Amino acid sequence: MKTLLIGLTALLLLSGCTNKNDMDRALEAQGFTNIQETGYNFFSCSQDDFYHSGFKATNAQGKSVEGTVCSGILFKSATIRY
Questions:
Q1: Rounded to the nearest 5°, which phi and psi values hold at 2?
Q2: What is the pLDDT of residues 51-72, one digit of tens each?
Q3: 38 Cα distance to chain centroid
Q4: Cα distances (angstroms) measured from residue 21 to each of 1, 28, 58
Q5: pLDDT at position 25, please?
Q6: Which of 11, 12, 18, 49 fits a disulfide with 45 by CB distance 3.0 to 4.6 angstroms?
Q7: Verdict on whether the full-model pTM lies above 0.85
């Protein structure tokens, strides 16, 4: 029971590790529209990234795409991964 409680607490803490402002800025700079945040994506970014912001959006060609915007806390710009 103790292990389950610790695991659930860890998941709740990780779910808050998104950065909507950086995500919107990075996606809009690449021509994305209709941006929707889908939450934290656990295994989509490298170990150097702190924020793992999942998204659904429409790209510049008008197609729907899903991916993750990865970014760090300091001195690391955002990276879009599909």
A1: -65, -40
A2: 899 999 999 999 999 999 999 8
A3: 8
A4: 37, 11, 18
A5: 93
A6: 49
A7: no
**What are phi and psi for residue 70, nearest 5 degrees?**
-105, 135
What gap in Å lies between CA 77 and CA 29, rounded to an integer? 13
User: How many other CB atoms are there within 10 angstroms of residue 55's CB atom?
Assistant: 23
Q: Taking Cα atoms as reference points, which of 76, 79, 30 lies closest to residue 57?
A: 30
Q: What is the dihedral of CA 39, 45, 47, 52, to 10 degrees?
A: -20
